[in-house]
């Protein structure tokens, strides 16, 4: 915004008799002075006591702080100054922008001799820009702060009172600017305001007192130079705390200077005294001037650093933003709570040192074998080792990504997701990789087939940067066997595609010695296998682990340091047979969250006639038996239902969700879960999940005399399936007969189906599988028949198909097609919607 000043007219003039010597009637004109003494002069209006000029001129930019109006009588051969008025532009701007203002014109003795009508108009848009830049170039203003500094006014060779007052007005104008942005600069504002007031008084004194000491001139000159930052002060200060501090000190110093000048000029607290009598005034002024110049230097340097940091940061931020937008297109796993890598624990310090060292050595040593595969039976400790290996490489900044597969979260092992997660992790691991992958992402590849995506998203980008990287970068994949139906394509992706990547990218894969995995990995030159053989591994690790857990239990329960005896510790080590999950479950049973009597529990454990070491099924049975009174039919029914819900839920559920799904009274599931601490991980209000996958295996394992629980659970699964089906219909408010409600179809159904699928579908699948497989073993009693009939009803088939082909039928049309197929709606239905 630029400003134009209008001088309109004068009135109420007192025409003194002495002036008549210069003419009978006045010939009047007005001069307007800004801080640079750029004078604007109106034309002369003759013989008129109420002259009207209506003339305007553009103020210099940046606008001056004060304007002086002088009324002259144009006498022959002589111009007589009649009266003068002064007003600050800020005051004019605030109180009367675009409005006429009357100001009193006074004689030197403060006598009012008339009134002058002026106004200030704002110019905006192109004209303002033009005017400002024209004036800026006229006064050699540099570009705005943020790039370089912009001096408000550099007054060269200050030598006279007039110029001194100009210089002071420059400082004032700058201070005014700071005062104006006061709200933004809450800390600075009060000081700036005070300094401005003192300086205003100094300015007035200087105006009246024409001659000025050279020292004051020098000081004011230093102040003027210093205030070059003030126009953009809010920008500068808002962007840096350090600069804010400097500005604050500058302002305090200004106050100091203003006070001194005022004193020096004889208008301070000391009253009218000789300048020379101010003790050491000259020296003090020199000091202040030097300090001001130092502050200016500090400010400039601070700003220079700040400016370059800001620009570098802005560039960096823009780049990062761009990249993170591109990377956000990647499909990453949304781990259901409790299933992500962050929930995994590392090995107890001191355990597994040899194997971790061996694996990290293999992964950091260049070799043909790009993949290290660790195989081992369930619960032997693979995930824990994988977590430690990941953390080791994360610490070195060399972890590409850590993928954990679990059978409860099959989506997480979708090969596309795996590919994307690796691309994302590697991009985050190194800026060059990020750049290369983001370039690929800008080519819109994400709908392309898997092999093409591998080629474009990983292979090419990594190839393109391989010479700029010092390897290795490690990708850890835990639980490959848990990827179920993705196993084939994932195995193929890892063994045949990932091995084509540059040698710096190494893979650490763990799995049970699953046949499908072995088929792909064994006999592949790119794979080095290391198996965790619990029968031959040395027992130090498990012994250390058992002792550590026992110490914790002892401390927690305040037991004697002799508990348990060494021989019992050894017995536990033997019983564990090197199987960590056995040791972990046994010690949870003895001293976990729900055990109040570790001594008794330990005794019970040791009394159990384990048929073989590592017999997990027996251990799980023991843990369940001790969880409550199974002879109480109420407890038995609810506990089985709750266990089944936990074992089968795709997404871990809270106790209240379990209550809702099973139609139990609020708090029932929590009561049961309180007793299942050694096999289920749960705390009030949290999601419940089996402590280890092997407990799920146990519950859903083949029915046999050794494991009566699996039959109990299967029976409960059947009930659960029916309960879920009912809940599904009730909660989803989805009555097939109401399909015409297209709003419901379009907006609610896809989301609801998702909820339903995540909680219910595994239950249905399991119940179907189990009862299908055991049909021959059981009499088709009424209950089972009812159950099967419900499974075979059109509605059920519809739901089953809806669940299994959810991807394809995300649209209302898809559901309709299915509904028609099962004759749940008539063929003409589609036309009606
Ligand atoms: N070195 C160790 N230090 C501390 N705890 C361990 C260690 N190894 C295993 N555990 C504990 O033993 C249990 C089983 O370990 P883990 O889950 O790593 O086995 P796994 O071989 O991955 O089993 P699965 O094949 O079923 O996934 C976990 O509770 C884990 O916390």
UniProtKB/TrEMBL annotation:
Keywords: Repeat. Pfam families: C2, NPHP3_N. It comes from the Eukaryota. InterPro entries: C2_dom, C2_domain_sf, NACHT_NTPase, NPHP3-like_N, P-loop_NTPase. Residues 1-103 form the C2 domain. CDD domains: C2 (cd00030). Residues 370-513 form the NACHT domain. This is WD40 repeat-like protein.
